[in-house]
Amino acid sequence: MTLTVIGAGYVGLVTAAVFSELGNKVFCLDIDHQKIAGLKRGKVPFFEPSLAEYVKRNIAQKRLYFTTSYKESVPKSQIVIICVGTPPAKNGEADLSYLFSAVEETAKVILRYTLITIKSTIPIGFEQDLAARVKKYAKSNFEFASVPEFLREGTAIQDSLHPDRIVIGTKSPKAQKMLLELHAPIDGKRIICDIRSAQLIKYASNAFLATKVSFANAIATLCEKMAADVTKVMEGVGADRRIGTNYLSPGVGYGGSCLPKDVLAFIALATHFDYEFELLRAVDAVNTGQIESFVNKVKSQLGTLKGRKIAVLGLAFKPNTDDMRDAPSVKIINHLLALGAKVTAYDPQAMENAKKIIPQISYAKDVYDAMRGQDVLLIVTEWPQFSEMDLKQARTLLKNPIIIDGRNLLDPQIVKSHGISYVGIGR
Ligand SMILES: NC(=O)c1ccc[n+]([C@@H]2O[C@H](COP(=O)([O-])OP(=O)(O)OC[C@H]3O[C@@H](n4cnc5c(N)ncnc54)[C@H](O)[C@@H]3O)[C@@H](O)[C@H]2O)c1
Fold first, then answer.
1. What is the pLDDT of residues 315-324, one digit of tens each?
2. Cα–Cα distance between 409 and 386 in angstroms, integer?
3. How far is the CA of 8 from the centre of ligand 1 (A)?
4. Which atom of ligand 1 is found nearest the CA of 262?
5. Residue 125 carries which DSSP code?
6. Could you tell me the domains of the chain?
7. Closest ligand 1 atom, CA of 156?
């Protein structure tokens, strides 16, 4: 098949790379000229394991093309897959301006039946609005479908090739058949449904994952009050197959470009449909509270933070990505700076992106450079290499041998055996 994937971000570029790898001819379109110029040379604009190899291989095989032109790509495509961002607007609702623009630009150039498939996470009930926008311009027949994306940054290629499920929301058997054919080489359970249900599956899934994280954080808070160990409690809870272990790790809270924004958008969306989503409001409140609770742990170790030197390990919202969108590290660091602390940070991948958001801190060249002469060491992202740090060296380099582990990455007994005080979350 010939496809146009609109938006060369985390979702769009991975989608384009994977569908071209599977033998389709794919145009990947973005309005960002600089990004497209780089991609034409095989330069991937963000860190995602294996993605650069997929991109380079498929450019060389003449299956993957990059463009900024709708006219050059859309008329040749049977399916257009829209993967533009839907960031939060000020009121928490999803900002759909990129989506509207992508849909209208597509409509202006379609010359034959085109299946416009939305992968971006968008609120339920927009298909009529979108159809009206396309009808205004389109000279040909078109149809909308929804195939929400569930990939995780850091394992995006594997998640796309081996998803748990592929949700296909359509209005017609023709659209359903086209999408089943496109996804045929990919394994995973097929969930065939209407467009609204498909969109709701995406919001409900992210809301449930956020609920699991906040639940674990609430239990962690109780563990601290009850002198229990949350890592053992959650190991025991997650061992029940009805519950499962994923997303039950307490910490500084969920972040990233999806969970926080989708929870807020879902609350706003529910209100439009006359439902007060109080459960999700509580999930959001627990998540926000984790930041303050973590900063309070720093205060209780150091007293006043004015002039104190603090090392922060980990800036990305999770390991194996350089994505800083809604990363808890930013909120934590801004809090520490507001209290007069001096921060030195290190992250294996995200420092270039972090410098654009928090330029006022120092950036270290490695883990040990970050901790030299510091009053405390904070772990904010669970990069695996942090768990391998040489604690003997940490003991000598830190001015005050204290580690506050916001991800429960280290073993408290081992840290303490090196003469370093350890504070975790709920243990
Ligand atoms: N990042 C994730 O892990 C993830 C996972 C599942 C779902 N999603 C959803 O997928 C969507 C995309 O997310 P993302 O993280 O890939 O976003 P992103 O910000 O990384 O990428 C969006 C891209 O779209 C481009 N763009 C904007 N308007 C355009 C237009 N009119 N025409 C062409 N290109 C345009 C931007 O330049 C950008 O490169 C969102 O709705 C998000 O909620 C994201």
1. 999 999 999 9
2. 8
3. 7
4. 43
5. T
6. 2-193 (3.40.50.720), 209-423 (3.40.50.720)
7. 3
